[in-house]
Amino acid sequence: MSAEDLKVISKAEVAEHNSSESCWVIMDDKVYDVTKFLMEHPGGDEVIIEQAGADATESFNDVGHSSDARDMANEYLIGRLPAEECQGAEVNDPTKAPKIKAVASGDSLKDIILSPTWTNFLIPAVISVLVYVSYKSVMRLF
C-alpha cells in the first residue's frame, strides 16, 4: 500500500476518537484505529486509552515493544497525517510499523545499553545480584 492509497486524516479528526468506543492514535505520523485491539492489549486497555486521540509515538517507543508488536500495528493502519501536520518522521512508506533501532549482535556496548530492549532490564538486574553477592561475601569475613 502506497502513501497515496492511505486516507489523509488530520490531527483534529484523530482527536475526536478518544474513547474506548472509538480509539485512534498517531504513531510516526500514521493513524491507527486500535479500538478492536483494546481488549487484546497485554498491558491493558487503559494504557492505550490514555493516548487515544493523540500522538502515541513516544509512549509506544518508550515501552520497547517487540518487532511482532510493531508488525501487528500495520493491521490497524487506517491513514496518515497531512504533510503539514507531520513531525518530520518518514511519510514515504506509511505501511511500515513505527521504527525503533534494533540491536544487532555486532553493535557496540553503548548501543546495547542505550537500546530500548529487554537488556535495559537485564543488565541492571545482573549488576544488582552481583553487588548483593559481593556484599554478603565480604560481610561473612567480618
Automatic annotation (TrEMBL):
One of its GO terms (cellular component) is endoplasmic reticulum membrane. The chain crosses the membrane at residues 118-135. Residues 6-82 form the Cytochrome b5 heme-binding domain. Keywords: Electron transport, Endoplasmic reticulum, Heme, Iron, Membrane, Metal-binding, Microsome, Transmembrane, Transmembrane helix, Transport. InterPro entries: Cyt_B5-like_heme/steroid-bd, Cyt_B5-like_heme/steroid_sf, Cyt_B5_heme-BS, Cytochrome_b5. Belongs to the cytochrome b5 family. This is Cytochrome b5. It comes from Steinernema hermaphroditum.
